[in-house]
Specification:
By secondary structure, this protein is of the alpha/beta class. It folds into three domains: about 35-210 and about 325-440, Alkaline Phosphatase, subunit A (3-Layer(aba) Sandwich); about 235-320, no CATH class; about 445-515, Arylsulfatase, C-terminal domain (2-Layer Sandwich). Helix content is about 35%, strand content about 15%. It has helices at about 1-25, 60-70, 85-95, 95-100, 120-125, 175-190, 240, 245-250, 270-280, 285-305, 305-345, 375, 405-410, 425-430, 500-515; strands at about 35-45, 70-75, 75-80, 130-135, 145-150, 160-165, 165-170, 195-200, 350-355, 380-385, 390-395, 400, 440-445, 455-460, 465-470, 475-480. A ten-stranded mixed sheet has the order 7-6-5-4-8-1-9-10-2-11, with helices on both faces. A hairpin with a 2-residue loop joins strand 14 and strand 15.
Length: about 525
């Protein structure tokens, strides 16, 4: 009798174990696959050049590399409008700026219309629990989320304010650490009976690149390589020449490069803003900051740099702080991945990391973004999920309008007819890129006049060519042969041998504008 009881317990244990395993893969009622959880992590202004899984030349990002090494890395991912708020609106809606209504960043102009359909709303209707923590930057309150805890505006690096479900509070700490704390806290307290969407939106590495004190010493005196086109003279490219985003000319010594001397000798346009940011610090934070920067300020004032030596010093000072901010992002992503792995959530959770756009790290002599040139047009995109059939590099042309349809597709939710992107699932479920995948991309940037004086422009990118039209206050075209000129230094629009290429590209460009509903010949500046 005793043996029979033991045998029964053993058999029941196997049955229960098998049942629980099945529950992880299928729904109890209908036998359908369980919907995957989704964690979408977006940093702000993280150029693909600063992820070691892309090239490894500038820095090491071991935790971001974990996502790429265990999943996929898109080597040709792009945005539709290289600017923070418009990119966030595109992410949510799967639509270009002309369809979602958010064209520019500048406060006092158009806010995001939260009443329109977004993928978090659709997932929520389909039974997902939804949350967002971190940077929002859309001026209207989040909609479609069961929980939200966001930074007001751009947010602060030290002791930031958060708005939790409408209630504002100031929290002591460093912003990247706090965002991760809140993300993990939400995961621990969520409804365990529902699949979830968690959006983790980092502030870093946005300007003015204020590192956490735990990264002080990192990249100290690093001899970062100077890009070959750092001293670009912009010959034949008027749009590139007349900008105000030059590291050499426009980067603020006090605000951007932290040369806020206590004597007040260094007077700059934005010094006061940095002084106010420093006042947010606790005495301990400020003491650590001063120990790091006071010797640098003293050495800078003593050196009396000028010319090329000053130009190179500014670049390396900029990169040091920028990459330290990236290091904090990478470390905190490691914390999040470790939590998923330790709780078993990794098995059924899609993890996506991207940036709201790319960023210049000295290429063409620039910082910031906005242009359709590769460094800002292109964005990092890496994904990890046990259900992906494909691993490694994916070279297909993809765009941030595709993110929303992809999440809906994996959740088994029908994509609205007016979403303009396409699901990336065919790329993730097949060993090769489908033959009918897109062969070209469309881009449109609207914000001018603005601080960085980047002219309005739109254009098309194919595998080999990029055609850009600058419009509004002047009308000029640029054509780049990316095979022969990957750094986009030579505008060949007026070269007779490319006449046929230009004719073909203009036809394709008009077709894309029509397809995406951006049909006005010269769209006017949008202001609401």
């Amino acid at each position: 009798m005793k043996k029979n009881v033991l045998l029964l317990v053993f058999v029941l244990g196997i049955v229960l174990s098998t049942t629980n395993a099945c529950r992880n893969r299928t729904s109890k009622k209908a036998g359908k696959p369980v919907k995957p959880n989704i964690i979408y992590i977006m940093s702000d202004d993280h150029g693909y050049q600063a992820l070691s899984c892309y090239n490894g030349k500038l820095n090491k990002t071991p935790n971001l590399d974990r996502i790429a090494n265990e999943g996929v890395i898109f080597t040709r991912a792009f945005v539709t409008n290289s600017l923070c708020a418009p990119s966030r609106a595109t992410l949510l809606t799967g639509k270009f700026s002309n369809k979602n209504g958010l064209y520019i960043n500048r406060a006092g102009h158009n806010n995001f219309d939260g009443s329109q359909e977004t993928f978090p709303k659709l997932l929520r209707k389909a039974g997902y629990q939804t949350a967002i923590v971190g940077k929002w930057h859309l001026r209207s309150d989040p909609t479609g989320f069961d929980y939200w805890d966001i930074l007001p505006g751009q947010g602060q690096y030290y002791n930031p304010d958060f708005i939790e479900m409408g209630k504002k509070k100031r929290i002591e700490g460093y912003v990247t650490n706090l965002i991760t704390d809140y993300a993990i806290r939400w995961l621990k307290g969520r409804d365990k009976n529902k699949p979830f969407l968690l959006m983790v939106h980092e502030k870093a590495p946005h300007r003015p690149w204020m590192p956490d004190s735990t990264t002080f010493g990192l990249y100290e005196d690093e001899d970062f390589p100077v890009p070959d086109n750092y001293f670009d003279n912009y010959a034949g490219r008027r749009g590139a020449k007349e900008q105000k985003m030059s590291v050499i000319k426009d980067m603020d010594i006090a605000y951007d490069l932290k040369m806020v001397d206590k004597e007040g000798d260094i007077k700059t346009r934005y010094r006061k803003i940095m002084e106010n940011m420093l006042k947010r610090m606790t005495p301990a934070q400020r003491a650590a900051w001063d120990r790091e920067y006071d010797p640098k300020i003293k050495a800078f004032k003593k050196a009396h740099l000028s010319g090329e030596m000053l130009a190179v010093w500014k670049l390396r000072r900029y990169l040091t702080d920028y990459l330290r901010c990236v290091a904090s992002v990478d470390r905190n992503i490691g914390r999040l991945l470790d939590y998923l792995d330790s709780t078993g959530l990794s098995k059924n959770t899609i993890v996506v990391y991207s940036s709201d756009q790319g960023f210049y790290l000295g290429e063409h002599g620039w910082f910031d973004k906005r242009f359709m040139y590769e460094e800002s047009f292109r964005t990092p995109l890496i994904m990890r999920y046990s259900g992906f059939k494909r691993k490694g590099k994916i070279k297909a042309l993809v765009q941030n309008i595709d993110f929303a349809p992809t999440f809906l597709d994996y959740a088994g939710v029908k994509e609205p007819a007016d979403m303009q992107g396409v699901s990336l699932k065919p790329l993730l479920e097949n060993p090769a890129t489908p033959a009918n995948w897109r062969k070209s991309l469309y881009y449109h940037y609207y914000e001018f006049p603005c601080e960085h004086f980047t002219r309005r422009h739109y254009g098309i990118r194919t595998e080999r060519y990029k055609l850009i039209r600058f419009y509004y206050d002047f009308d000029e075209w640029e054509l780049f042969d990316l095979k022969n000129d990957p750094h986009e230094m030579h505008n060949v629009y007026h070269d007779p041998q490319y006449a046929g290429v230009i004719d073909t590209l203009k036809i394709q460009l008009d077709s894309l504008r029509t397809m995406y509903g951006d049909t006005l010949p010269d769209p006017e500046y949008i202001s609401k």
